[in-house]
Amino acid sequence: MLGRISGRRIHFAGSADIDVEPGRLKYFHSLIRHIAKRTLLEGGGLILTLGSEPLHETEHDLPLIFDWTLLEALDECRNRHLQNWPETQGAQVIAVGLPKWRERVPEGRKALLERLLSINSIQVIQIRSGLSIGGVLRERQATFGDILVVAGGGPGVEHLVESYKSNCKPVIPLDIRLKAKESAAERLSINALENPEEFFDYRPSHQATGAFLALSFKNHQPHIEEFEKRFFNFLFHLPRPRAFFARLLNKELSEHKEVDRFFRNVVDQVVENAGYERFEMGKESSKQPFLNVEIFQVILSSSLVLVDLTGLRSDCLVELGYAIGLRKKVIITSQEGTRLPFDSASLPCHFWSITQSDVQRKTELQDFIKKNIIRKPIIES
Q1: Which of 105, 171, 187, 199 has the fewest Cβ atoms surrounding its Cβ within 10 A?
Q2: How far lies 4's CA from each of 61, 125, 211, in Å?
Q3: Is the pTM for the entire model greater than 0.90?
């Protein structure tokens, strides 16, 4: 069960009304903190926003959003060895900030922030000034997140949900009442009950509605430990993020043997250890009558696209361009000696050797992925 969450970042998002019933909001903060700590300790990661912290109108120490509660959970875990997080994935926690986010940090949170910025588990990404910052922030978070969990909220939550769904990533809308009127998450939870396949790929699919219904807060407030058990049981039934391999497949070409050896002896294990399940055309079963249709559909639904340019096949270059255009996490590799048709300073490429041992090649590929997997998109909205 443990491996089902390792390497996956969960994004808890949403907000409550300024006059929401305080007891319910306090309960939900406790629940989120509890789940976030277990996520970190079991090898998962977090996505959050850095900035201000709006507070309840009467309970002035009760936040209406959950980002700083997540940072409290990270702070409580920072002295514990989080050994299950795969380093190949980069930082365990990605914190995205709007321009001038430091000026919005509450005075009482500055010491917490400074403690956390000194550890290797967190990476801060700041949105460039001049962009449509709210939308860009959410889209950037959707790039790095693997699972979205929403509660309360309004239009921002709806946009975030669409960003995750457009990347074929699971969305779990919780129906806890945090707004005077029906919130975005509550409306979405109804849709998820009616059409669960639009929100998550629960396996087996015939149990999806019942499993999601077990996460409902309607008419009762489950004990935190009981909800935690149900929540992680739900996550364990979701497939791991997919890594799509684009590579030379023609066995008649001279380079094929070494490319195949590199993927089978090196890439497969590195990608699996990072928490992905692979998809490689010609190796997995096809669901579409036309190969090109399936290739583009699978790239769209993949979290990582690894393109090997050995042989400079035109189809691999097309797939590379498509993945870049979708702002996917892209890793480029090629056999030493390949002359790339673009500037490798703009698109870093890992050149692998046929003379090194597989152990050396795994180490070098892991280091390359770690350095390049959290890169901003070439073109920002």
Answers
A1: 187
A2: 35, 26, 17
A3: yes
Question: Which three-class secondary structure state does DSSP give residue 380?
Answer: coil
Q: How far is CA 168 from CA 202, 237, 259, in A?
A: 13, 16, 29
The kind and range of the H/E element at 165 are: helix 155-166
pLDDT in tens, 187-230: 999 999 999 999 999 999 999 999 999 999 998 899 999 999 99
Q: In what order do the strands lie in the sheet with 171-174?
A: 122-126, 93-97, 45-50, 9-15, 147-152, 171-174
Instruction: Tell me the backbone φ, ψ of residue 42, rounded to 5 degrees.
Output: -100, 15
Q: Are residues 16 and 177 in contact, defined by beta-carbon separation less than 8 angstroms?
A: no
Residue 36: CA atoms inside 13 Å, Cβ hemisphere, count?
Answer: 29
Q: Which residues pair with 279 in a beta bridge?
A: 244
Q: Give the helix/strand (H/E) hosting 272.
A: helix 268-273
- pLDDT tens figures, 2-61: 457 899 999 999 999 999 999 999 999 999 999 999 999 999 999 999 999 999 999 999
User: Coil, helix or strand for 39?
Assistant: helix
The C-alpha atoms of residue 8 and residue 80 are separated, in whole angstroms, by: 19
DSSP 265: I
Give the Cα separation of 69 and 112 in Å (integer).
11
CB-hemisphere CA count at 13 Å for 6?
17
Contact criterion met (CB below 8 Å) for 164 and 171: yes
Helix pair angle (67-77, 110-117), 10° resolution: 50
Burial 235-258 (b: 16+ CB within 10 A, else e): bebbebbbbbbbbbbeeeeebbee
Helix (H) or strand (E) holding 148: strand 147-152
Residue with tokens 């430990």: 225
Q: Dihedral (C-alpha) 203, 208, 213, 216: value to the nearest 10 degrees?
A: 60
Q: Is the peptide bond before 204 cis (omega within 30 degrees of 0)?
A: yes
Tell me the β-bridge partners of 174.
Answer: 151
Q: How far apart are CA 12 and CA 14, in angstroms?
A: 7
Going by pLDDT thresholds of 50, 70 and 90, the confidence category of residue 170 is very high
Please state, in angstroms and rounded to a whole number, the distance separating the CA atoms of residues 174 and 371: 35
Tokens of 114: 């400074």
Cα 96 to chain center, whole Å? Answer: 13
